[in-house]
Fold each of these.
Amino acid sequence: MSGLPTRIAVAGVSGSGKSTLAKRISDRLGIPYVELDSLHHGPDWTPRPEFVADVRALVARPAWVSELQYATAKPLVRVRSRRAARRWLASMTKASR
């Protein structure tokens, strides 16, 4: 699977299957899947204060698959995903020359 992106964010509306698709991509590519819901929710479904810090730690990892959700997480995930996508596209362009 060399050359494929290793930081993958699956976007979609609520109930569209983001988590299901993210898990399948994770299984197929052998990249760790991290469910943002599990980082966001604490006891009794209350938001965890450390959520943003946990998302920052997640996106700093070299490889992950997750859903793109939660207003506080989206900017962190998108920035990292865009950088990774640019590097991947650049490597694919060089390889095709």
Note: The mean pLDDT is 85.
Amino acid sequence: MRKIVLLLLVISGFVTSCSSDLDDKGGVTSTIVIDGVSFKPTKGIYFYQTASFESQKKVRFVISDEKNNEKFYIDISFPSSQKDLNGIYDFGPGTADELLVSSEFVTSKTRYSILGYTLKVTDLGNSKFGFEFTNPVTAFDIVKNAEVSFKGGFNGKFEFTEVKEKINAGVFTIQNNLN
């Protein structure tokens, strides 16, 4: 009888721990619509980059739809004294002590430069972030040489990736090492 009770406790503990592990890996959700087309990502990563100034930090977010080879990039820079990524980031230009952002969406057919006033970043902890583009925001289609409609944002859990920069025979490469 004790063995049965012990077995049931072990199984219930395993089932409970597995469900919370899955809940924590939720992924990235998107409400982004560019030029009438929805972007549905399958993966989100982020990593720190070398900043232009010592008084500054830089983080790049890469949200991708690996099936369709589409990537949405969000680059933010902020004062190195800031402890988290929370804030309202300006599309610039600006200085090293300001919260700044640049963003683009790249597909196999075109590249969109995201233009607007601000991006609100919410650092929810545990590698979870929210991104809200504040209106008016538009996208500029580099191939069509035209402004197109843009709306939406991102929310979810991102994988932290360590990036090591190398220079090989004059060619800049990036090597990713997942923790």
Note: Residues 34 and 150 are 5 Å apart (CA to CA).
Amino acid sequence: MQRLQNPVNSPNDRSQVRFVAAIVVSLAMFWAALLLGGCNHSAATSAGRSTQDLDSSGKTRKKIVTTTGMIGDMVSILVGPDANVETIMGPGVDPHLFTPSRSVAVKLRAADIVVYNGLHLEGRLGDVLAGRDGDPKNTIAIGETLPHDQLIDADAGVHDPHIWMDVSLWSEAVGNVSRRLSELMPEHADAIAVRASKYQAELAVLDQWGGKAMESIPESQRIMITAHDAFRYFGRRYHVEVHGVQGVSTISDAAIRDVNRLVDLISSRNVPAVFFESSVSERQVKAIVEGARKRGQEVSSDWVLLSDSMGAADTPSGNYIGMMRHNFGTIAKALGGTVPHDGPLQANAPEIEG
């Protein structure tokens, strides 16, 4: 009987089997490494995301939405790395005229905490703020934290909302907001209190420095004419007479009689300068300058103040202290005063524009 030959007994056949087996093993190792690497990458990415979203106590960071840059700056300093802060109004935005988009409304309603000025500054945001989902206790209106006797009455029976123009009053607001944030973020209360105390010390230096700058202006020249009436708190605190072409809000245009009234003031009091504002139309201030010149009265108009918004984020005036230092220095130079160059502010002092 003829023996059947084993199909793999020949040398050539055994070599082919070993070759195929090697390929199979290599492919298996490749796919195993690929899958393992993918899992590790996914786990690392997930871990990275979770680490970025956690605060110093290991909890998910709260989402805080603020309206103006000044408020965003304050809240960011107070909460530090323990919350995510987003400001909806950027540099140059007029809060009186700001119209919330759908995306802004969604952000406000989804926020864990909302901090806004109140006192009708963000007039067109009122309905959105009032319609926030969730507990209204998580909404902080800074103006409402201040005693009414410290607020200035404005037109139509409402208070002037420009409370940040008095550095000492803004410092008081910092204390009030820090206490409310501590209630809403109790695990970070101690850290918030420490940050608030440090920031208030810096504001006390700024307040004193600004007061010295205003005192350097000859008393007869301490008259400010601005695009709108945003500097009443500034005038009260630093003993400067202030006049705005428009009222405390920029919603309505000034009448011709308002322009003529200020032209008369420039002529009768020999006012040396008028001020534009970065977030307000230049048109009406230009009308005042032109009206004064027609009467033979030259008035300097090369000065821009930061009233309802700070400077760009990458500039020295892109924070509250830098913003107010810019205003103090610009006003002092325009009205015949001097800019102080002493004190702790000088170490990181931005250049005064104008």
Note: The longest strand covers residues 223-228.
Amino acid sequence: MEADQPIDVYVTPRCGICSFDLLEGDRVVIGVAYNALVLDNLYSGLPGDMGCHAECLAREPCTPPPARFFSTAYNYWPRPDEVRRRERWLRTCRVAPMLHRILRRRFAVPAEVCEVIAEHCSLREWAAAVASEFWERHSATPVPEHHEFNISSSVWARRVEFEGELRYGNWVYTLIYRAGETPDRIYFDISLLGIHEIILGAPLPRVRVDLPLPQALPQLPSPRSACPSHYYYDENYYFTSATLDGVAEITPCRSDLGVIGLLLHYHDGRQAALGQVRLDKLQRPPLKVDPSRSMWLHFSVSSENCPNIEAIEFVSPTVVGPQHFPVAWRGTLEWWFSYRQCRLWHGMFSSPPTAPGKVLDYDD
């Protein structure tokens, strides 16, 4: 073979000893089992011979057999998180402890500083040393044809990964939970980066508490009157009610439509709202209430045939018509309202309904 003749060689993309990438410009050795050939240029991308760094091969005590390389080489493309985890383990469990042992002979260097220094160190020689130790420790052991694992219960999983030899560092272990005699539950939040949160606990014992429904579950007001008919497609009615017993004063709430609500003041200091009550629309001063005199509400009909309260008086009108609605100071007053109109019920009597007319539709 002439010295200047180019040779195209295809090798695996990772070193067979340290398992790091073979990069452009690295001195790569291939064909160790039969003929060593040192290359300065690298061509990867197709399946080929197992290659390794020349520096990694120089650490081997003798020419290794082909099985040596395949014992520590990847047979698949590792995920990025697997590569980062392996590099983190090498820095934490190999490089940083060695730096700490060397530097503490002359300086009082914390272990944390050594971990920072290890971030800037090459990991190839450390990975090659770990691979050599693994091969020397397990090469004499016969390799079984298959592996068996005893599983205590049924396992449902999409993918199972066996890490192989576990390498534990000098970690700090803390007992955070001790299982009891009752069945326990474990909740965990997991992603590709690991387990972020774990919650452990047993189901709480059931406690029977008899609570009276009226005191334990307050009920919403249940109207005795029926909801007014919907004459407009975009009209929704709202319901309010209040007792009239013990009312001392009332404060009307007035808008462009007329009186849209009442704020009731009771003798015992309580207050209640009927209809729409807006603080910026309250009429001052409040009106005194005489329990012996009924309250007369005068209704008027708008151009859209919608009834609203026009005035409040405590004197009966000379001529009583359908637009007048008397309210005695006892019982419950129910007030239905929308943004167009209102309708009141007191006992068996009600205020004027929506006047008959054209019902608006979506096309109006």
Note: Residues 77 and 326 are 88 Å apart (CA to CA).
